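>> Question from a student workshop board

For tomorrow's exercise we were told to take the sequence and the ligand below, predict the bound structure, and bring the output to class. My setup keeps failing. Could a helper post the expected result so I can at least see what it should look like? The ligand is 3-isopropylmalic acid.
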Amino acid sequence: SKRYSITLLPGDGIGPEVISVAKHVLILAGSLEGIEFNFQEMPMGGSALDLVGVPLPEETLSAAKKSDAVLLGAIGGYKWDKNEKHLKPETGLLQLREGLRVFANLRPATVLPQLVDASTLKKEVAEGVDLMVVRELTGGIYFGKPRGFGTNEDGEEIGFNTEVYATYEVDRIARVAFETARKRHGKLCSVDKANVLEASMFWRKRVIAVAAEYPDVELSHMYVDNAAMQLVRNPKQFDTIVTNNIFGDILSDEASMITGSIGMLPSASLGSSGPGLFEPIHGSAPDIANQDKANPLATVLSAAMLLKYGLGEEKAAKRIENAVLDTLNKGFRTGDIYSAGNKLVGCKEMGEEVLKSI
Amino acid sequence: SKRYSITLLPGDGIGPEVISVAKHVLILAGSLEGIEFNFQEMPMGGSALDLVGVPLPEETLSAAKKSDAVLLGAIGGYKWDKNEKHLKPETGLLQLREGLRVFANLRPATVLPQLVDASTLKKEVAEGVDLMVVRELTGGIYFGKPRGFGTNEDGEEIGFNTEVYATYEVDRIARVAFETARKRHGKLCSVDKANVLEASMFWRKRVIAVAAEYPDVELSHMYVDNAAMQLVRNPKQFDTIVTNNIFGDILSDEASMITGSIGMLPSASLGSSGPGLFEPIHGSAPDIANQDKANPLATVLSAAMLLKYGLGEEKAAKRIENAVLDTLNKGFRTGDIYSAGNKLVGCKEMGEEVLKSI
Ligand SMILES: CC(C)[C@H](C(=O)O)[C@@H](O)C(=O)O
Ligand SMILES: CC(C)[C@H](C(=O)O)[C@@H](O)C(=O)O
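>> Workshop helper replied:
Here is what the output should look like for this input. Compare the format with yours to find the bug.
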């Protein structure tokens, strides 16, 4: 039987609750496919700050690097919101992404037929939405230098950041995006602001260059402001979207809200080699933490992405995905996706129902 | 009687058609309030490129600077899309904003009861939306230096831009935003990415400093990714939003699409002194140009903003706004906002109906 080592990073707020569910789901789905896991839980985010004073302890990063895949719950909370930058939970997340070199963030936004009413969009606009945002995750304005505070020529105080992309950075994310589009419906839309920004003109030039390797994928380009509109107007027009770090941050959140069920949406962050990082796209929701109210399905589906993209275990992944659909078909709903006529359950019970369906 | 000089910049595509309507509306509404106008039409955008080889001729900028207000139609088109940056219509627009020093871009997004069905959002989510985006327009990554192309330490090609804000830039846009919120419902939401970007931390610090002058306005802060979600989830939560140039570009377009009728939405760009720039938020729509299909109401409402914000002529502005509502109440609709049971009209006829209603 195969054996993989998984680093679990429960994090803050509802993180530990949803990670606990996903862990049990992994164990069961794995065992049915002859897969065993060694789990190692490590502190990260606000809980690491409280424990050892930094948001990403060295031990956590090195354990993550040595494992086959990393599953993260959620990080952050009011308690640490006023911390200085290097002592913010979010900084730990950025350090983790950088440390694992996971430059490709895959964020699906799918409207499940069972949950189409959860969207604020009209049914005919929302139903059938099934898109994937491929976001560059370790470059651009998030990491660009120079950055910081200073004074300008007039002696005025300033704050500044640098948006910068190099050839290898655009080329490798473009390749991931083209490969992703090829496995989906063969359509890739690259989003930029090439009518204003040099960094975007460069981005577009490299995406076009890489496109020569993928003649079977239909490439289009869209300005980011228009993309933000088109996601509202007609999200079904999109198959795969590729974009930079900051535009991807904004557009993938917009796309996920369009589905109406962000408690359902997983994500995968992948590098060229080494372990991938898998996490639900929702936050740590401190207001409902420890009340058994959280929706664990986004983390459960992140575990499925871990199996599929992180370990190449497609069969075990499919088991989990099917079990989630099954559980929804049976009418089980946590509060965030509840609608009349269904069965309201807590985090734990939802987890148990998924286990039954596997 | 009062007399104002107005620079008209018809621009490209449907620009000339909608400007022609707005001009006649201005003349009539003005005459009823004892106001006369001198209009001067100048070339700008693609049509200026074709005529004299630059997107913003010097004569156009100096005429605009000398006038009391500037009304722009729309610029751009496929024909000039592949032009080098300094020969793009968009570059002319950025030069115009910079030249007029119009740092504050006011973009209302209002769902009119008559047009609530045009939104892709569910009726209960869309109805009653009435928000204003105050976008910083002459700073940030649009204008920051250094910018361009080069090579990094590894000899790799790069493209880069600088996001930068100085104290005076944030302070003045914050003041416009607080004043705007004060005249509306007293709520201001400042949108940034202060959990990652130093430029945003600086932005937030200055907005908080300026807030001391406006104790009657309720200030909140939101990350840009969350704002992109909240606009879809519950746009009614917003009154006034203030944000930087690039986030404002994205969010104001998203907000306008949420109304479902971008053919209706005007904008105003204001400086500390000198003429303001007024324009519809829609583009030049080359595919329907010269077919008498364009919706002129966004430009007509931009003319109303010109009267109100540019010239302080509130009464004449109100006449135009009321005439537009009247025309909609009578059931007149251009194709973009048409729904069954209404009267489909072209650009010219819509203009004539507004004139009748004034
Ligand atoms: C928490 C924050 C630093 C992070 C980001 O901006 O990347 C988050 O918004 C995300 O999208 O994962
Ligand atoms: C045309 C383009 C340069 C412009 C911008 O990005 O500012 C447009 O999108 C706008 O919002 O007015």
